[in-house]
Write a structure and sequence with these properties.
This protein is of the alpha+beta class and about 375 residues long. Helices cover about 60% and strands about 10% of the residues. Strands 1, 2, 3, 4, 5, 6, 7 and 8 form an eight-stranded antiparallel sheet that branches.
Length: about 375
């Protein structure tokens, strides 16, 4: 008797990565709009261009779901009518708020004045979209996993991507890599031709890095400056280890540890000195970057990791990483970070972003160990 192999399920984890682009990108743009000086039309044009990309990508993502996902689920899964109506109503709300953003965007793009109404409209879009994405991930994604095959899912992804313009495809590829772990990024690139992957690594990634640095208003350091930064970091790490933390063990009255985490794209371990605050048997660290407008690379690596290595003085620990949800983050920020190091409030004000927080919970120490490297 011949048995038929079960179809390969869709890799629905990709959906959360795509959603992450919008969850992080829209609040970032709202902050950039608010920080743009009146009349700075060079900046407003660049920021507006990135907002155009996010709105276009969101439209194609939702219309692709409407064409390719919902018909299959209605046929195979028979989802509750209430769920269908709720998803349709949420898509309509997101589309209405996207339209409101677009109605304000052109005037601000050309004048860089009175940006607050646009920023508020982006905030309202982010709120409606966040509610929809939470609901979709909780109730629709399990149906996709159970009732849609991997080839059908991959076809949906290809068709949606092909609807983007060539510049939008480059931006989308970079944006996905920015929010993805190394494993997650491999899901999106595994099916590419080798030549396409090589061209992205040699040319596309650099173009995207220059582009997103322009959007964020940060200069992309040249090779010489990058080498200088890396050299200064290596020196700080070496002095900390050789002195058992006596040199470089505090900053502005806050203790400093060494944190080693794998690169989220390469897997290569990187070690950086990071200020920390003890809390309930763990250590709270923040991605403040001294008030820079984007999260530091080390925090992006930590966010993608489950475990890291930390060194405090002469002791080393493996530590579990927890990036708390928004309400818990806000409590830690208020009751731990600002309560003990109030100068972090200036960093957040300067950055124009919500500074992320992580909690490192250590395993028992390894006596006398100075850690990796």
């Amino acid at each position: 008797m011949r048995t038929t192999a079960a179809p390969t399920p869709a890799r629905t984890e990709e959906m959360a990565v795509i959603h992450r682009v919008f969850r992080r990108g829209l609040p970032m743009v709202a902050g950039l709009v608010r920080r743009t000086p009146p009349g700075a039309t060079g900046r407003s044009e660049v920021i507006a261009g990135h907002l155009d990309f996010l709105l276009s990508a969101l439209h194609h993502h939702h219309s692709g779901e409407d064409r390719n996902i919902w018909p299959l689920l209605l046929e195979r899964a028979a989802p509750a009518a209430e769920l269908v109506r709720r998803m349709e109503a949420q898509h309509a709300t997101v589309a209405e708020r996207s339209g409101r953003v677009r109605s304000l965007l052109d005037a601000w793009r050309g004048s860089a004045t009175d940006g607050e109404p646009l920023a508020v409209a982006i905030d309202e879009l982010s709120a409606a979209l966040g509610e929809h994405l939470d609901d979709e991930e909780a109730h629709v994604v399990p149906l996709i996993r159970a009732h849609i095959t991997a080839p059908e899912w991959e076809r949906f992804g290809r068709q949606t991507f092909e609807e983007l313009t060539d510049p939008e495809k480059l931006t989308a590829t970079g944006a996905l890599e920015d929010v993805a772990t190394a494993e997650e990024a491999a899901w999106f690139t595994g099916g590419r031709p080798v030549a396409t992957t090589v061209m992205w690594r040699l040319v596309g990634r650099r173009r995207y890095d220059r582009y997103i640095a322009g959007v964020r208003g940060t200069s992309s350091p040249g090779p010489a400056l990058q080498r200088l930064f890396r050299g200064a970091n290596r020196l700080a790490v070496a002095l900390y280890r050789r002195s058992g933390g006596r040199i470089g063990g505090s900053a502005k009255g806050v203790p400093v540890l060494l944190l080693t985490a794998p690169g989220r794209r390469t897997g290569t371990p990187h070690t950086v000195p990071v200020a920390y605050l003890e809390h309930e048997g763990g250590y709270v660290v923040t991605g403040s970057a001294g008030g820079a407008p984007v999260d530091p690379q080390w925090f992006r690596n930590v966010r993608a990791a489950h475990w890291v290595r930390i060194e405090i003085g002469t002791e080393s620990y493996d530590a579990e990483v927890t990036v708390p949800d928004a309400p818990t983050r806000d409590l830690l920020w208020r009751d731990v970070v600002l309560a003990r190091a109030p100068f972090f409030a200036k960093y957040e004000e300067k950055s124009g972003r919500i500074i992320p927080v992580a909690v490192l919970t250590p395993r028992p120490p390894v006596p006398g160990s100075r850690g990796p490297g």
